[in-house]
Amino acid sequence: MALISDEDAGEQIPGELPDAQIALPCELEAEEDDALIIGPGGIPKTGLESSQPDPDRVNLKNGKAHQSYQTSIEGYSNIAVKDNGGAALEISPEGEVSGEAMVAGEYTLILEALKAGRPVAIRARLSIIADPRDLWKAIASDQQAPNAKVDEASDYCRSAEAFIVAASKRGRSHAQVGSYRDDDFSIRADTETGWHILIVADGAGSAELSREGSRIACEVVLAALPVLLAEKVDPRLQSVVEGYADDPESWALMVREELLKPVLPEAALEAARAIELEAAETDREPQEFSTTLVIAISKKVSDRWFTASFSVGDGGVAIFDVDKNEVAVICRPDSGEYAGQTRFLACSEFDDANDLMGRIFVDLRENFTVLAAMTDGVTDAKFPTDAALENSQIWSEFWAEDISKEVDLQSNNPAIQEQMLSWLDFWSRGNHDDRTIALMLPEQAVNECD
């Protein structure tokens, strides 16, 4: 034991060092680890610096949700995954990265590898971008509220000559907020008279009760047309069809003026009156029931199909023939005062006789593949311009590569309605309105597709 003299104290204390040799606690810590981390302003950071070097940082290319993923990590060998960060990826020792049905999110993967023969750690970042359709909500509408309407509907009917299938689906923009489907439709294949009737209507999204307006319009027209056709068209139809060959242009004008004008506009006018009556009885304004209306009728006469249409507002009616690669658009899309507007069913729309004639179309042919009546939720997405609606190549692609891929358009398909509703859920960027379509397919055309 060392004896140290302390003259001031006059006493020798065993084991003590002179003051100059006393080590303070912070000095002892510094001796133990001289790697103390000093932050800005000379302020020590808590914790000690890791002896491990910072990992290499790698940003993997972005991927898309629900799709397969492939990329590569270059400059490294013997790669091994220590933590995949929740990303379902396979990474080979050579750096080949792959995955299936990726889930949207941000991922950080911790890897080990060799770089120039030396072991390194890798922090790899990966972004899987969400599919836009996954961001849409599907909030059910209130089915207990007055004038409630189901979010989707479909129907099917058949005669000896043709069958009709129709489907209507609430748009994503409505589903996002839990509002109602404003579209509606009615169809009929009359086995006694041979008439096939297709009606679709698109309630104005800005009108509170437009869903009721479209329903009223379709129901009233479907009830009125069979009576009007029996009284005003059927007695003359056979002789009218036989006179087509004499002068087709004059024939069409005569048919529209004498045969169809007292029928199609009259049925639509009955619908407009019914809407006004409903508005009066419920103390509402007729504009709150605003809706478009598209009507198509077709009947086989003397081995030829007599088809006609009438419409108020946007949407579309067309006849497409696959064999001839021909399309006939038999409607006049109505526009409003400003771009993007349309016209709606109202009694005032029937005041101008010349305007009414411009809305009536007639067609006569031996055969065709499909007669289609659509609201703008379909036409805007599939035929975004008037020129596209008249383009036979676009129709050919639509028929063969689009709808026919998803729907087995055969009269004996028991799942046809469900398939139509599923098809209406197609994705089209910027087009999220209600969608309604009614298709009539002659049986001969159906058999040719078998």
UniProtKB/TrEMBL annotation:
Domain PPM-type phosphatase: 170-401
InterPro entries to which the protein is assigned, alphabetical: PPM-type-like_dom_sf (IPR036457), PPM-type_phosphatase-like_dom (IPR001932)
Gene3D superfamilies the UniProt entry points to: PPM-type phosphatase domain
Protein name: PPM-type phosphatase domain-containing protein
